[in-house]
Amino acid sequence: QVQLVESGGGLVQPGGSLRLSCVASGIIRSIYAMAWYRQSPGKQRELVAHITSGGSTNYADSVKGRFAISRDNAKNTVYLQMNSLKPEDTAVYYCYANIRSYYGGSNNEYWGQGTQVTVSS
Q: Does 59 have pLDDT greater than 90?
């Protein structure tokens, strides 16, 4: 089985920055994609940023130009650098990964427990 553990959330003022990290551990053969989602009160969970094993990225329009997703394959870790933060970015941020544990096996999807990001003056 696989676990995803996020870290780096917290309270920050508007215009500030945070860097989130997510580490995958367990039985891992390959990580095909990782992503960050977020969910704020009264809202559905939404995709924030996505990165493939080859390094291709996609971003929500609301964060494009401000956030950057990256990964360290050797460490099974994905990062989300968040700059120019706005109050509307306040949410619980969840790590997602598409992972294969065994050769010839199926890929499975995993979620972290989430980390709170609060942007407020």
A: yes
Is-contact 26 15, C-beta < 8 A? no
d(CA 4, CA 56): 21
pLDDT for res 1: 83
**Cα separation, 13 vs 29, whole angstroms:** 39
Place of tokens 């390959």: 30
- Let me know: does 82 contact 18? Beta carbons within 8 Å: yes
- Separation of alpha carbons 52 and 55, rounded Å: 5
Check: CB of residue 99 under 8 Å from CB of residue 27: no
Contact at 8 Å (CB) between 38 and 112?
no
User: Measured between alpha carbons, how far is residue 79 from residues 43, 57, 76, 94, 104 in Å?
Assistant: 23, 12, 10, 12, 28
Structure tokens at 2: 């696989």
